[in-house]
Design goal:
alpha/beta, seven-stranded mixed β-sheet, 304 residues, 11 strands, two-stranded antiparallel ribbon
């Protein structure tokens, strides 16, 4: 039984007449009659009683009409849904982000704008560190990700810098370097005299590898007291007095009761980008639309 046979049956049941149903369908009456007879043979029941003025549904025909109309409606609903999927208005979008990327003022607005423009798309959000997000993208478990400095660049992934912002030094609010500092910047050499907390996978590049490289280029030997996987863990340790760190400026205000933030005096070469990572040949339309929206919002950002 095919969908055409259901449409033919529904037209005859609605009109109660073979000829009028054939006209409605745009076919000849004899082929329509043959199709109805073939359907009755396939089902093993009589669907219509023939009479001089047309046809009437049998009891079996009335039962079949309910099922046929339901199937036709389901088919139409499926076609409409697939049309929305084909246009990117429906589907699933899996987005990953690091905690520091999520803290950026850009992100909440971008997600709200996407939800408004694509209300039929299911958003699946995942927070993780940059290394795990990159691996998930390469494995196809995510459609795109937002992070800071890439820690790896696997083949098949695309990396785009959307925005850049300066970094700040984060220190315990009761630290001697925080007292009376006001708006004065902290020299890099002074930072290196303190215990530093890093957020990175050992041996991988990234913001904190850039910090170490800048220190070494200036002949400084930083003292690393801890390495953690996530930015929020980093700030928790700073708040606990374990050491100092550098963070993107948009993280300022986290643990405001326990952390003081200061500019880095000679950190001009060090900044924190907001990086969009996507699959180079992405066929998911919601992901394409999301990436396009991020680029557009980044271009319009007054502080970009």
């Amino acid at each position: 039984m095919d969908i055409r046979a259901l449409r033919y049956f529904a037209a005859v049941a609605e009109t109660g007449h073979m000829t009028r149903a054939a006209e409605q369908l745009g076919i000849q009456q004899p082929p329509l009659s043959l199709q109805i007879k073939a359907l009755e043979r396939e089902l093993g029941v009589l669907l219509f009683r023939r009479h001089p003025r047309g046809v009437a549904l049998t009891d079996a025909g009335r039962l079949f009409q309910v099922e046929a109309l339901r199937m036709l409606q389901d088919m139409e609903a499926m076609k409409q849904r697939m049309a929305r999927v084909a246009s990117g208005q429906e589907g699933t979008l899996a987005v990953g982000f690091t905690s520091s990327a999520a803290a950026h003022r850009f992100m909440p607005g971008a997600l709200r704008a996407f939800r408004r423009a694509h209300p039929g798309v299911e958003l699946q959000l995942r927070e993780d560190n940059a290394a795990e997000l990159t691996e998930a993208l390469a494995a196809g478990r995510l459609h795109c990700g937002l992070l800071r400095v890439p820690v790896a660049r696997p083949e098949g992934l695309s990396f785009e810098t959307l925005l850049r912002e300066p970094v700040l030094v984060a220190m315990p609010s009761d630290h001697r370097l925080a007292r009376g500092r006001g708006s004065r910047a902290l020299p890099l050499a002074r930072l290196c005299e303190e215990g530093i907390i890093l957020v990175r996978r050992p041996g991988a590049p990234g913001l904190y590898a850039d910090l170490l490289a800048l220190c070494h280029a200036k002949g400084l030997r930083p003292r690393v007291v801890a390495e953690v996987d996530r930015m929020m863990t980093n700030l928790n340790l700073v708040a606990a007095g374990v050491g100092l760190s550098v963070v993107p400026a948009s993280m300022a205000g986290v643990h405001a009761h326990a952390i003081a933030y200061a500019r880095l005096a000679d950190g001009g070469q060090l900044d924190a980008p907001l990086t969009l990572v996507s699959r180079a040949e992405e066929d998911n339309l919601p992901a394409q639309h999301f990436a396009a929206l991020l680029r557009e919002l980044a271009r319009k950002d007054p502080r970009s």
